[in-house]
Amino acid sequence: MNDVQPSGPIDLTTIATGIERTNELLTRVLAEVATTPSTHAIFVDAGYVYAAAGRLVAGTEDRRAFELDAEGLIEAFIDKARMIFPDSRLLRVYWYDGARRRIHTIEQQRIAELPDVKVRLGNLNANNQQKGVDSLIRSDLESLARHRAISDAALIGGDEDLVSAVEAAQGYGARVHLWGIEAACGRNQADPLLWEVDSQRTFDLDFCKPYVARRTNPCQPEPYAEPGAAPGGVEAAGRVEVRFVGAQVAARWLAERGREALADLLPGHPYLPGPVDQELLVEAEGLLGISLRTHADLRRALRDGFWEHLRAQY
């Protein structure tokens, strides 16, 4: 059997040129991959958050008995993720909740209007139990991981049914980090879920307390006001006044910390780091004489006024 011989002389120059071009292409691809920022997303099972935070802070899982400052809590989650994933950018926050016939409640509408937040709704049955939320979480986690849209997923929940969602995302190379809320007693997250994730983190009472407040009348919620609050309470504090107070606090903050601190703060717009947000809230409540803890619309106006003043000074 005769070996097949080449029909002509081998052109080493052509081969060398081809190899050089291939190496250049690989170099560009590797450089692009190296400079592409990692991306993370936060997946929040609202039913778990309400139940766990309510039990921990207010002593009950009944949503009618307490108010949750969802906006403030979401911003706290975003701020925590920014610290944990310093070299990663946020894709968005997914907020999973239940609603009758999947029609947004007023509170869910407000959450959906927040920047970088997407509300996904399952159904509520006759016993006010969520149906279909776990499948929504799995669908989003798997899809984002499959398309390489995220490298890390912070999952806030505790149901064992979420194990399949974690496995699906990990199968496409994403890392899944389970975040939970401290249990009043025992555990509020399933063991198989804890075993499956890449890392775990628990938020304690001090973290959750600013975002939960008991209602004075569970059947007919009323605005909460601190003792000695100004006449008219929260109802008398309009968005314009609260926005103006936000600007006042910003002026004091800038005078105390200077422009270097401002330059560090601006890249995070429209979000404030947790300590700055809490400082703003406490100082504003002192100036107004009322509590804003359970009034997301007024807290949003407060932050708007704070940012508006700071950005005008840069």
From TrEMBL:
Residues 41-182 form the NYN domain. It holds the Pfam family NYN. This is NYN domain containing protein. It comes from Streptomyces varsoviensis. The lineage of its organism: Bacteria, Bacillati, Actinomycetota, Actinomycetes, Kitasatosporales.
